[in-house]
Amino acid sequence: MFFPSLLRTTSLSLLLLPAACTQTPMESSSAMAAEQRIAAGLSSDATDTSGYRLGPSQDPNGIGKYYQGRQIAHVMGHEGAEWLERGDRQEEEGTDVLLRELKLKPTDVVADIGAGTGYFSFRISPLVPQGKVLAVDIQPEMVEYLRDHKASNNAMNVEPILGTVQNPNLPKAGVDLVLIVDAYHEFDHPREMMRSIRNSLRPTGRVALVEYRAEDPNVPIKRIHKMTEAQVRKEMEALGLVFVENSKALPQQHLLIFRRQ
Question: Which of 166, 162, 167, 175 lies closest to 136, judged by CA?
Fold first, then answer.
């Protein structure tokens, strides 16, 4: 949503801003770079054993790359950062409820993937006073923003990290919770990203994946920026992540929890 989202989080299909979902996606430098990488990596209509396929875009809001049968969405670049901090976000998304549902411990190390402006990173910071928040984005502008705003948010345990579209650069077996809010559906290398994320988890570590519910036609989000629980589980389980639960606490989004096998 976002991001990324990329979070979307650019969200990570470009560590993505978690937020291109309700707007016409910007043709940002991030999105264009993603398409160039894709064109260089696969020939038209090619498939590989990792579940990727190139083909004509079935949705104009997506890129011409598919993973496990799902078209990957465009991402929003840093140009749309203000949208992440909109005043009605807490009410619209239930962000306070999300933080409560994560059941964080004071010593947890949390990775916020597609951190963007730090909307979640800075809110998580006081919840893990003896731990830290690894705020990951692939856009240098967002990483700089996070560094510049740590002090003003009294969040010195937030550690900004510049990642790539294939690797969030997290410590191996060093993370208790990975949070991805409205960003995963925009990752242009979802398999590689999630493999790296899985390897970053401690033995009891969890992934919390938040996506708008595609099963609900009343959720006012473009279809390509929504995911079904079944699709998310299919993609996570293919990489050795075990489904734990789908919290129903959020007004419009899935909160899907996974752990390592």
Answer: 162
